Amino acid sequence: MKIAAVQMVSTPDVERNLARARHWLEQAAAQGAKLALLPEYFCLMGQRDDDKLRIAEAYQDPDAPIQRMLSDSARELGLWLVGGTLPLRTADPARVRNSCLVYGPQGQLAARYDKIHLFRFKTDTEQYDEGRVLEAGDEPVAVQAGPVRVGLSICYDLRFAELYRGLSFALGQSPCELFTVPAAFTYTTGEKHWELLLRARAVEMQAFVLASAQGGRHENGRRTWGHSMIVDPWGEVLDCLGEGEGLVQAELDLARLAAVRQQLPALQHRRL
């Protein structure tokens, strides 16, 4: 099963971002991908955090343009589509959920995950607090995407290994074969921690990790780290894109995954 991650440098213009996302999804499908991932905030990198409130959609609204684009793209391109993130409305008009929606190849909604861990960062020169406009989710989510069980996570979640372990050892479920990480890592944190954390999660969980990032200098002045990548269960980076728009792609080889888990049965040795 071929998988792909789209890297973008999203703008404050939703229509333009949707068009660029669709372009790269078409490229991924044309090159044989059966599952594709968009980055966090693929639909908007606004001038202010409050811009998320302006474009937020009601969940499962048939007339909502972002959700409609995701469903149509999955159906028309025959993809399992992990739709990065988009803002969904909450009961509080001053807060939204940062939500990842998964669509199947018939365009059907298969899963929703709301980002649990909200990023806060402060130095002498920069600061950022997602909690100012975001409401945290509270439920881990995995979804069966064809032959693959996929654990969903978003950006800052990557720092919390217990989320990934909980997804893989959910009661009555087999361990996830793939984890998806749509992200918009800052340049500062990404340079030091992004690849390190992605490879750690892959090795710990003996699973593939598909990470789709924002990557470059945005119109709002923010610079994101990029380096979308695919990591295999042994921690090997199969493909990586530094900055700018594009795709990373690889074969999700379930025989390779089974061999790693058989040769080093760490998941079976778990005691806590």
What does this structure look like?
The model has no long low-confidence stretch (mean pLDDT 96). The strands form four sheets. Strands 1, 2, 3, 4, 5, 6 and 17 form a seven-stranded mixed beta sheet that branches. Strands 9-10-11-12-15-16 form a six-stranded mixed beta sheet, covered by helices on one side. Strands 7-8 form a two-stranded antiparallel sheet. The two termini are 33 Å apart. With 272 residues, it is of the alpha+beta class. The protein has one domain: 4-Layer Sandwich (Nitrilase/N-carbamoyl-D-aminoacid amidohydrolase), CATH 3.60.110.10. It is globular and about 50 Å long. Helix content is 26%, strand content 29%.
Quick summary:
The chain is α+β, with helices and mostly antiparallel strands. It is 26% helix and 29% strand.
Topology at a glance:
Blueprint: E1 2-7, H1 14-30, E2 35-37, H2 51-55, H3 65-77, E3 80-82, E4 86-89, E5 96-103, E6 109-114, E7 120-122, E8 127-129, E9 142-145, E10 148-152, H4 161-168, E11 178-183, H5 187-205, E12 208-213, E13 215-217, E14 223-225, E15 228-231, E16 237-241, E17 246-251, H6 254-263
Parallel strand pairs: 1-2, 2-3, 10-11, 11-12
Antiparallel strand pairs: 1-17, 3-5, 4-5, 5-6, 7-8, 9-10, 12-15, 13-14, 15-16
Helix pairs in contact: 1-3
